[in-house]
Specification:
By secondary structure, the protein is of the alpha+beta class. It has 3 helices and 5 strands; from the N terminus they run αβββαββα. Bound molecules: guanosine-5'-monophosphate and zinc ion.
Length: 137
Amino acid sequence: MMDESCIFCKIAAGEIPSKTLYEDEEFKVILDLGPATKGHALILPKNHYRDLFDLPEEEAQKAMILTKKMALRMRERLACDGFNLVQNNEEVAGQTVFHFHIHLIPRYEGDGQVIGWKPGKPGDAELEEIRKLIVEE
Ligand code: 5GP
Ligand code: ZN
């Protein structure tokens, strides 16, 4: 399952070179070309899925297990102090390559990167309204 116009499909198929950290039948893990920090990596399923909404559950499970394995390995080898996992879906959320991927971003004391958001201050009523919107039939 490949999209001819997708750069990550081409990387997954080896048609475009990448610095590969891990590869099996279903996944490839590569270094990001525009890293936030040293070792910033991307977990890619080889099949083309646009985003989390398209990703089958079985591949979602495998992707998270692989993410954990890579994080352990990278923490050991890079001696990073922490990790951010980032996974963007749709342009509004910062997705620029529309082939599902998980960012593994090693964090180092004093690395100066900012990965976050401005916290809001919702009242209890607003939180309750949102909770109901999500959970109630
Ligand atoms: P997104 O913004 O979609 O969550 O993340 C896309 C990521 O892919 C970016 O961090 C960008 O640096 C990386 N990227 C884009 N094109 C290439 C490429 O050709 N090779 C590699 N290794 N990374 C890429
Ligand atoms: Zn693709």
